[in-house]
Amino acid sequence: MFELQIYFVSALVSAAIWTLPAAAISLIYGVLRYPNFAITEFMTLGAYLALFLCGFSFPLWFAAPLAAVLTGFVALAFDQTLFRSVRRAGALPPVLLSLGLMLFLQNAVRFLWGNDVLQYPIPLSRPFVIAGFVITPTQAIMIVSVLVILLLSIVGLRMTAFGRAVRATSTNPELAVVTGVRPEIVYGGVIFISGFLAAIGGVALATETTLTPLLGWRVLIPLFAVAILGGLGSVIGAAYAALLLGLVSEFSLLVLPATYKTALAFLVLAAVLLVRPTGLIRAGD
Amino acid sequence: MKRDPENRSILGSISRRALLAGGAGALAAAAMPGIGAVRADEGEIVVGALMPLSGAGGSFGQEMLASAKAALAEINDAGGPNGRKIKLVEENDETSPEAAVRGARKLIEVDKVTAIIGTWASSVTLAVAPIVQANKLIQFSTSGASRITEIQKKGHLFRTEPDDLLFGKAYAEYAAGQGWKRAAVLGLNVPFTAMTVEAFRQRFVERGGKVTSFTTYNEDQTTFRSEVTRAFADKPDFIHISGYEPDITAILKAAYQLGLSGRFIVPGFAVSPDLIKNAGPAAEGLLLVEEGVAEDSPAYQRLAKALGGGSDHYYSFGAQAYDQLNLLALAIEAAKSVDGTVLTDAVKKVSGPEGTKVTSFAEGIKVLRQGGQVNYEGASGSIDFDANGNIVKANFRVAQVKDGKVVPVGKITDVVF
């Protein structure tokens, strides 16, 4: 048994699952200025849509991004109908709307797919062991996919015109409008991308655990911890924060009972915020 | 609530609101159990079957209803308690406390039942019990949660399912019987596991075993790799997982994906065919401990025959529902009353352990009518109730997943608190 290496890989798996949905929370907060609690349910919806597509004998690697695109459109549809009408009403109405949407989506999933525990049609595989690092092919593919999507998001935010508009809106909305950025396009784009990222996170979580209607709901608290720790508004910050929290909570098992894993995440959050009140990374990066 | 009859004559002079209030009061008075004296000592005795005919317990509920009907046929064929037939009114609790409370109120207020049998989920039993107790009726349940015992102290509630604590002891008895000395425990961080695991640890240590680690986990975890590693670290003879289906599935997968193999013992109620399908090769060899039945008893054999299944069928909750109705009917016969408070004592008395052993209602009334005392030995076990209305000793069955099928591999009999 190579305990330390196992904890390290577990931390990577946790971080890979948390990163994208936390980045979605961060992006929405940075641009639209409200915490969107429905993100976890977009994870659940995306995971179930991927299962639905697998039913047409698509392989999961193809079904997952397709489901993520669909989830992005669903998120966009809710944004353009519900959230758009309260755009100018301050931060509270969209927060309440997102809570309502969270409950609605969770129960819609229950209605459509039932309460049973489900699973993707991928065979369970025995792991590789490389220098004591135990990892299964599914986990390796998951970590690499998340890394690729993360890199694409970061590059997209830095290099493209849309990315610049997003960062401009995030740093100074009024100035962005003055310089010709059309805010509704930025909002719509960010919501679509957030839905996409959440869905990928949902599929990743479902491959590692099981698919139930409570899939996303269960990670709501760690996700917000990651997003806040990363400095709300920063994608790369969410990735660092996910890795930090993953490492701390897994290695904590050496000294603390697992019961305190979630509590420890908050301790780290508090400690970091004491030193760096804006989180690990400044918003907009 | 009480209205003076003279008021009726001056109705014309009072407001419509007062009229409504008066009418509602009169209705409520009529609905109050006892006052109407509708539930007289003649005619049919109405019993409510409040069962999970849909939802998480759906498959069990159907089996329980069929089993209760089998008992009903036997009881009515024998003439019924005190010569009165029993009428069974079914209600679906949807495995949900809200639906169960609606169902219980309907059974009590509309159907005027004497007793409610068959509440399956612990949340349902906990929600329905206060209503039954307030109306001084009788309730039988198949729920395992230990905190129900507190509610039972007020009487009127019996459980034919072994308490969760007995499950904990059963794991220990089985492991000790197999000669396994070292146990690791993985437990979901909820109250029920803390109690079961403590009961397990206590009995396992008494039997000379050692718990090498007790790792708790939260259901919000993204991966269970580290917890599984922790549990395997001390090379235990077996690992007991105390949790529910989603997390047990994830843990089995995590162990498989870490390349680890070991013996896992889990509660039978957490394992559905879905788990075996979802965990696939990771579920191979999994040991399940579930509430047992008295397979060799005449009562169980009659029930199995009535339900028409082959020998591979295993009617654990059905056997309990069958026994619940038989116990109730015997208690009514013995007490010569349908009063809930009188019945609370009578049910304990007919359950044994003192008295002549009987395995059916027909045998029971013969003994009772000759002035004797009966000890009902049912399809689910010997069912002797303690002062709280819990069974004092329970039988369990151990089964194992082999090639994706659940195969019985052993029995644990007479597990006590």
Walk me through this protein's architecture.
- The complex is a heterodimer of chains A (about 280) and B (about 425).
- With about 280 residues, chain A is mostly helical.
- Chain A has a single domain, classed as ABC transporter involved in vitamin B12 uptake, BtuC, CATH 1.10.3470.
- Chain A contains 11 helices and 2 strands.
- Chain A has helices at about 5-30, 40-55, 60-80, 90-115, 135-160, 160-170, 175-180, 185-210, 220-230, 235-250, 260-275; strands at about 130, 135.
- Chain A has a two-stranded antiparallel sheet with strand order 1-2.
- In chain A, strand 1 (about 130) and strand 2 form a beta hairpin.
- In chain A, helix 5 packs antiparallel against helix 8 (about 185-210).
- Chain A starts with a helix and ends in a 10-residue tail after the last helix.
- In chain B, helix 10 links the parallel strand 9 (about 265) and strand 10.
- In chain B, helix 12 packs parallel to helix 14 (about 360-370).
- Chain B is elongated, with a radius of gyration of 24 Å.
- Mean pLDDT of chain B is about 85; it is low at about 1-15 and about 30-40.
- Chain B is built from 14 helices and 14 strands.
- Helix content of chain B is about 40%, strand content about 20%.
- The interface between A and B is large, with 43 and 39 residues.
